Prior knowledge:
The protein is α/β, with parallel strands linked by helices.
Amino acid sequence: MKIVFMGTPEYAAEALEALVSAGHEVVAAVTQPDKAKGRSKTLLPPPVKTCACKHGITVLQPRRIKKPEAMAELKQYPADVYVVAAFGQILSREILDIPPYGCLNIHASLLPGYRGASPIQHVILNGEKKTGITIMQMDAGIDTGDILYQKEIPIRDDDNYETLHDKLMVLGGQAITEALALLEQGKLVPAKQQEDLSCYAPLIGKEMGELDFSQGAMELDRRIRAMTPWPSAYTSYQGKQLKIWKAKPVISTNAFERNSGEILSVDKDSVTVATGEGALRIYELQLEGRKRMTAHDFLLGVRMQPGEVLG
């Protein structure tokens, strides 16, 4: 099929690579403008642009896809279908109606659950046991279009945002190529989303990484995993920010007798902290101004003591 691909980050680039490998003709890749990074303000291309250039695909980088001049340029590349993955701009109804097969979105959740910008973090935060990819027929709403195809995977107890993102990134490429094959054969059957089962996954902000030790250990563990590696989960220790990168909930007989956030014990490989329910054993952390490190290495330079309080 002839495809116009729209996407920006690594998650989208993996899908573009899968489409090319499957033999589809990608006539153009639409992505966000290059961004200045670091102190030098060097302009760096988004991953989709890098992938497209590698394959000799024409790249379009409109600041606003809805502008008349951007749409006029887009129409110069006729395609059977537009494939969209984390593009970062809202498509107008006029754009949605351009290709004969419309616009298909690669969404990183099992719709109608977790519509919105941050589904991967929110499935971890909410303790879901599975997630997946939905190939959706885009409409004017936010992730409200008909479901065309889905693939699911389990969420492991040790999955964090990074590991689950990478699994879904690969699954998205598999799902879109399988869905397009069925589309060509006329075998995709659209299914309306059940509104009563829908929920929204709003954009994650840095403030959501702050840990409240009055919450239970399992909830804190999910928050740490959902915020790793960005925006990261954090508390404070002796007036400095302390990021917590890896921890596990544990049963503790004396946690209920202590204040939330109080350090219960320190051994050579971990720090155990009281929470509102149970305790949290910390294995990787990072004090403000220092590198991320294991608890073992951290404790060689910082003398944490039972009775001290985090937060």
